[in-house]
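INFO batch 0412 | record 1 of 1 | parsing
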Amino acid sequence: MRCKQQLTFFWIAASILLAAILQFYAEYFIYSRDELWEQPWRLLTAHWVHVGWMHYLLNMVALACLPVIFPKVRIDILLWFSIVLPVFSSVTLYWLYPEVQWYAGFSGVLHGLYVVAAVLSYRLKGERLFAIGILLGILLKLSWESVTGGLSATEQLIGSPVLIEAHQMGVFWGIVLLLCSWVWSRR
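INFO prediction complete | emitting tokens
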């Protein structure tokens, strides 16, 4: 158990530090449609930089809460998803939303991570009701965003529009990749 706590702390601390360092050089790491294929690291890093420090703070607090809310979920799985989800989301953003020229933020990945953690928790005895509550909460939030067009309070707080499609992509790819990993592990 102690090793898991140390790994969890290291993952969260390293993620927060990495995102902070990238934030200082955001223009080199942000999703930029015109530069995406010449600078492919942006597929990953676009989700680790933010439009400002308040945006960074909100997302890093949500990331730090993840292992606290879901203490029984294996941290290596969340680490893997925190690396893979940004890439799949960026490629999807490129192909399905050509009007989006610039993007930064971790919230889409966070939505995916929370769904993955909730689904994994659902499989654990004694965690099902809580997991269902989290999944329903995320579903309601996504529905609300789709109907209203976004979260104006969040947009005011971070000083930028919220790309709700990023939240939807994070959830979509979280579920798809989790299902793929289950199929792969059963081979």
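INFO post-check: The longest strand covers residues 31-32.
INFO record closed
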